[in-house]
Amino acid sequence: MISTKRAYNFNAGPSALPLEVLQKAQEELVDFNNSGMSIMEMSHRSKDYEAVHNDAITHLRSLYSIPDNYEVLFLQGGGSLQFTMVPMNFLSEAQTASYILTGSWSEKAIKEAKLFGQTQQAASTKDNAYRNIPALEEIQFNETDAYVHITSNNTIYGTQWQEFPQTGEVPLIADMSSDILSKPVDVSNFGIIYAGAQKNLGPSGVTVVIIRKDLLEKANKNIPTMLKYSTHADANSLYNTPPTFGIYMLGEVLKWVEEKGGLEAIAKNNEEKAKLIYDVIDNSNGFYSGHATPESRSLMNITFRVTNEELEKQFLAEAKEAGFIGLNGHRSVGGCRASTYNSVPVETCKALADFMIAFQNKHQ
Ligand SMILES: Cc1ncc(COP(=O)(O)O)c(C=O)c1O
Hints:
Helix content: 25-40%
Number of strands: 14
Structural class: alpha/beta
Radius of gyration: 21 Å
Number of helices: 10
Distance between the termini: 44 Å
Order of helices and strands: EHHEHEHEEEEEEEHHHHEEHEEH
Bound molecules: pyridoxal-5'-phosphate
């Protein structure tokens, strides 16, 4: 029997997965669909696996109402390899790509683009310690740009785009690694959406790419086979051995989201969860302070400081003692961070909110 003792898991990624999905995977682990073997032990060309693979694509298409002129790809290499694949496929020496800098992941993305062509910052909030997302009016790009790149949710700083820029004919490319599947998104606004799976989609090892088909035709041709999007699009992401177990888990997570009522319902739940914690911060008279400006706050990663460093250390130590996992801020910025991805239950967020209030009452 599976133990249902579940941690208060606020890890930033890999992070919590739905208990129901883990239990189903456990049930099917050694004998998938009466095959006498695990999904991990099967050929990726088998009928059983092919059904799982295609089912995952179908569920993602259905949840996001992905238009027919987009491909859904399952790749490897994480969000980080997408930082390279995007410019390798879509930028050349004579072209410029625009990047909007909203945190460390955007910085990593632009660094890779510089290897392939010209880049420019369409906007940056670095001077404000990445506390906010730029206003749409601040964004500057040219009609001739190869693309405009954004990070839709900034995992480390705890900010999230509330409204996406409209870039017209210039493809908008979004790294949605830390907020994919957290709310409805109009896919047709984007040229490419990419995301490593290990926050909202499933275990690490699979990267989802949603790409507009006309871009596949325009991509640079003289690049390595495995790094061409078209290689994977032409082969239904079965050009080589895909991360089969990760894709199976992704399919189960997608079905779980459907059972929860789809993306609208998930978004409402995420709002409710984040509000529990932001309300404590806002009502603490400065005992807790949020890193992000209120209008840019992320519903996925809540970043905050405790009134002084000594108490902050104590807060993190006492929280750990009380069973809260993953509350330390990213090693590059310190402080505290609660990641409240889709699979983190409301009760877990409520427990943290109560703990924060109790800690303040004790130490104020
Ligand atoms: C927004 C964002 N982009 C990219 C990455 C890098 O992803 P990966 O570790 O899958 O390469 C992360 C990792 O946390 C992230 O949060």
